[in-house]
Design goal:
single chain, 167 residues, alpha/beta, Rossmann fold, 5-stranded parallel β-sheet, 6 helices, binds adenosine-5'-diphosphate
Length: 167
């Protein structure tokens, strides 16, 4: 059976932590769908279109194995729609665990044919989160090395380039 995985997330914005998971997942699954999963009532820094576009720019255009999509409904319904059998999530600190555990159990309760699979973060990305990156960038801190250059540039455009910062 073909192994099709969905990697859902806010990706607001995509970081090297996310990219590490994507790269490793491509060695594990026949197809990987990176899914910008959004809640229309939630506020994000980047629009869905901007987030999808940034992912395209950093992981490349759709090909036979990798696809990028967006969705605002129940993940298990999306999985059914595209014939995916795996939901892929990344794990960092223990603090991720409880929420991920709850979601995995809830998703399994709704659709027992879809398994949630976790990949441990690469040790360089243990403290990398989109939220922390936004906080640092918002105050003019450098997040270079934690996100691809194109994302760094978009963050600076959003928050304005602090005086004296050249890159
Ligand atoms: P969500 O709002 O769904 O948590 P995120 O974009 O923050 O969306 O995260 C999407 C997935 O990527 C989650 O499984 C999260 O744990 C994982 N992730 C985020 N940052 C990292 C990282 N630095 N290393 C590994 N996994 C990560």
């Amino acid at each position: 059976m073909k192994k099709v995985a969905i990697y859902p997330g806010s990706f607001d914005p995509i970081t090297y932590g996310h990219m590490d998971i994507i790269t490793r997942a491509l060695n594990m699954f026949d197809e990987l769908i990176v899914l910008v999963a959004y809640n229309p009532n939630k506020h994000y820094l980047f629009s869905v279109e901007e987030r999808v576009e940034m992912i395209y720019e950093v992981v490349g255009k759709n090909n036979g194995q990798l696809r990028i999509d967006s969705y605002s409904g129940l993940l298990v319904d999306y999985a059914k729609k595209v014939g995916a059998n795996v939901i892929l999530r990344g794990l960092r600190a223990v603090s991720d665990f409880e929420y991920e555990f709850q979601m995995a159990l809830m998703n399994r309760r709704m659709n027992k044919d879809v398994e949630t699979v976790f990949l441990m973060t690469g040790y360089q990305w243990f403290y990398t989160s989109s939220n922390l990156i936004k906080q640092a960038a918002c105050m003019g801190g450098s997040v270079k090395g934690l996100v691809p250059d194109i994302v760094n540039k978009k963050l600076m455009e959003k928050f304005g380039r602090p005086k004296g910062r050249v890159k």
